[in-house]
Specification:
This protein is of the alpha+beta class. It has 4 domains: 101 residues, Copper amine oxidase-like, N-terminal domain (Copper Amine Oxidase, Chain A, domain 1), CATH 3.30.457; 99 residues, no CATH class; 108 residues, Sandwich (Immunoglobulin-like), CATH 2.60.40; 183 residues, Aminopeptidase. The chain contains 9 helices and 40 strands.
Length: 552
């Protein structure tokens, strides 16, 4: 009888140990109940438990057991680890570390801390359980010669981007975590600063500071990595790259020296001086080089040829061209007193430059007797926002060599106050039709009876409108707006325009967040700059001016 009681007590004890109280973990909007069991004297999570499998599938991890079954290999983008049965150490990217917990092969299981480390996750205590965050497993250029940077996380995460000032780009990962000790470092062409990522209330923010003439697009790569893609700001790439074939150097009697950059076509070029190292960097976007002294880097869309010159103390520089050599750029370096003063950072175009320019009709939505929608809390009207954006865009495009026709340049109707809607809309389309412009772009702000509705969108109608709409779908999260993408709609200005035409709904003026952004001059300038970049990409893809005209 005593033996039977002892056996019964043992069964009850084992059952209690095998059914531990579960812990609740939240990650990417889902909840996981991870229930531990006792094996080998340790509380572990069984790898074949459905909840554990579900958590693994929420990450980018791939698990593989050795043929002996005594070693577990875990593969993540940018990170590989191996765990041996019962060992107090593990390897990560080829280096050995003290293990936060153990892997057991019988049955295949891991202690919670070990499993989370293997999956690249961090757990923070919150009310009712734990909040998980995904580690940045890799932050590096996508290739040794690339200007593009990649941010790789252990699980796909949502992100938002902002540009507080020219050249500074912030990427915020609400469920991201950082494990490296360094939080300020140089990476490729950028100075990187990392903040937050140590609690759910303090999101991970990565700041990338480039030269002020670089703009960056942040997008998802094919394998869900986040790509930070710098390109020259307000730059229109030509349909075919240029070639830098030679760099010739000569010494002048006045103590200056000249460098002659020989290209096969005129280009737009940029320069910047590093004040600490006194290095002048000259860059030719959309230009490859056959001369060994120039370094060729790559953006997402084209090569950039770079040449560096060391300036001695008291030396300056200036650029000039000979009128009979439109594809040859000269750089003079010498005592500052012998040269024209030049800004430390700047851009210019060679006399032989022919970019991907064209003609366009810009339509500032509403105006005059039609104010459009309104954010009453801010006292901001759509007609004023759209006009300001169009005037800014006109200035950028004109400087790039575009011919710009405006439907209005002041607060007025295009026809007359009180005219029928269709007459007004026909008059707007006719500005582009009569001017035979390559493109027609109408700028608007959206509105809703619900203040919670938000988002940027681009409307198109004709088949030939679609490619233009795709190139101008650039006003999403990077500016603090949500992105609604492309929408086909038979708006009158799209139907009536004979050229490829789109209507850009920049954001919802009636939404408190997006309305406040639209009311900000800096944001309206950023909208204009992004639209100009998109127009340049469209014209470059079409082979230059006039290629986008419709026969309608």
């Amino acid at each position: 009888m005593r033996l039977l009681f002892t056996l019964l007590l043992l069964v009850i004890t084992v059952s209690f140990c095998q059914a531990q109280v579960g812990e609740k973990y939240s990650f990417r909007g889902d909840t996981y109940q991870l229930t531990g069991v006792v094996s080998g004297g340790k509380t572990v999570l069984l790898l074949d438990d459905p909840e554990v499998k579900r958590l693994i599938s929420a990450t980018s991890a791939s698990l593989q057991m050795s043929t002996s079954g005594r070693t577990l290999y875990v593969f993540l983008p940018g990170r590989e680890s191996s765990w041996s049965d019962g060992s107090g150490v593990y390897t990560k990217n080829g280096q050995e570390f003290e293990a936060p917990g153990q892997f057991l092969s019988q049955p295949a299981s891991m202690e919670r801390a070990a499993l989370l480390e293997a999956l690249g996750l961090r757990a923070y205590t919150v009310s009712g359980g734990f909040q998980l965050a995904s580690l940045v497993t890799d932050l590096s250029p996508i290739a040794p010669d690339s200007l593009e940077l990649k941010i790789v996380t252990s699980a796909p995460l949502k992100f938002s981007t902002t540009e507080p000032e020219k050249g500074l780009f912030r990427v915020q990962l609400s469920e991201g975590a950082w494990e490296r000790p360094e939080r300020q470092f140089r990476l490729g062409e950028s100075d990187v600063t990392v903040t937050g990522g140590d609690s759910p209330a303090n999101p991970l923010v990565l700041e990338f500071r480039f030269q002020s003439f670089w703009a960056a697009r942040v997008r998802l790569g094919l394998t869900r990595e986040i790509l930070v893609s710098p390109e020259p700001r307000q730059y229109t790439a030509p349909s075919q790259p240029a070639v830098l074939s030679d760099i010739r150097e000569t010494a002048n009697p006045d103590g200056t020296r000249e460098l002659e950059f020989v290209l096969d076509k005129g280009v737009q070029f940029f320069w910047a001086v590093n004040p600490t190292q006194r290095i002048l960097r000259v860059e030719f976007p959309s230009t490859s080089a056959t001369v060994a002294t120039a370094k060729v880097l790559r953006t997402a869309n084209f090569p950039v040829s770079r040449y560096e010159v060391t300036l001695a103390e008291g030396q300056g520089f200036e650029f000039f061209q000979n009128s009979d050599q439109p594809t040859s750029l000269r750089l003079k370096v010498g005592p500052q007193a012998a040269l024209k003063p030049t800004e430390a950072v700047g851009t210019a175009t060679m006399s032989g430059y022919i970019g991907g320019r064209g003609s366009i009709a810009l339509d500032a939505g509403h105006g005059g007797g039609d104010p459009g929608c309104c954010n009453r809390a801010l006292g901001v009207y759509e007609k004023d926002v759209t006009l300001d954006i169009c005037l800014r865009l006109q200035q950028i495009l004109t400087a790039q060599g575009w011919r710009v026709e405006m439907t209005r340049t002041s607060d007025r109707d295009v026809t007359y106050a009180g005219s029928p809607d269709l007459m007004e809309l026909q008059a707007r389309a006719d500005v582009g039709n009569r001017g035979a412009t390559d493109l027609f772009v109408s700028i608007h702000c959206n509105a809703s009876v619900s203040p919670n509705v938000r988002g940027s969108s681009v409307y198109w109608w004709k088949p030939e409108d679609r490619a233009l709409a795709e190139c101008l779908d650039v006003l999403g999260e990077g500016l603090g707006f949500e992105a609604d993408g492309l929408i086909q709609n038979s708006f009158a200005v799209l139907r009536l325009s004979s050229a490829p035409a789109v209507l850009v709904e920049t954001a919802f003026l009636t939404n408190p967040t997006e309305g406040s952004l639209l009311a900000t001059p800096q944001v309206r300038q950023a909208i204009a700059e992004r639209l100009a970049e998109g127009l340049g990409r469209y014209m470059a893809g079409k082979g230059g001016s006039g290629a986008g005209r419709s026969s309608r």
